[in-house]
Amino acid sequence: MAVEHALRFVEPCPPPPVPLLEPSATLRRGPRFFEACQSRTLEALCNRVLPQPSAHHAVPLAALLDARCFAGVDAADPELGTPRECWRTALAAIDAEALARYGRNFCNLRGGEQDALLGAMRQGLLTHPAWQGLSCQRFFAVRLLRDISTAYYSHPAAWPSSGLIGSFAFTAQPRQE
Fold first, then answer.
1. pLDDT by residue (tens digit) across 5-39?
2. What sign results for the dihedral spanned by CA atoms 152, 153, 159, 163?
3. Assigned domain for 167 exists
């Protein structure tokens, strides 16, 4: 009798969360949405915007962004359009800017040259026709920074660096490397 009484007060467990991406979208090797050149540019952008302390524990940011674009899960921005179109246009424009200024693709530039292009993008100073009317400054703020940081913190490998473990607010020890 006491067991029956206790069972009435137990709340039902919520259903497990539905994954945003299918496991196959992130487990496949190589880009699925971006072309090889765009993927290399995206990888270089991710490494400059959010450098990671160790390649061994690195979050695969470019692969996560590629998977999100492939799945088409993100909402469109009124000024930038869909993330898929926006990323493709911007990656081509960033490479075009790098070629025009330095004679090399973005992924082949030195760190200081990459930083100079990113700084110009942040200030809205990139004007190559490859941008096709897309605001480089808005892309930097709305897509580049937000998408890369969201991809980073969505990955379990990044959770200890934020002081959180999983979806619970328990503080964790900082990662020692």
1. 554 555 555 555 555 555 554 445 678 899 999 99
2. positive
3. no
Q: What is the DSSP letter of 141?
A: I
Residue ranges making up the domain that contains 128 = 34-162
Task: Quote the crossing angle between the two packed helices 36-49 and 111-123, to the nearest 10°.
Answer: 80
Cβ proximity of 21 and 68 under 8 Å: yes
For residues 18 and 58, give the distance between their C-alpha atoms in angstroms, rounded to a whole number.
Answer: 25
Distances (CA, A) of 67 to 50, 53, 176: 18, 23, 30
* Residue 173 maps to a domain: no
Residue 38 lies in a domain: yes
Based on the structure, what is the number of domains in the chain? 1
Residue 134 near residue 80 (C-beta atoms within 8 A): yes
Cα–Cα dist 91/131, whole Å = 9
Provide the whole-model pTM.
Answer: 0.77
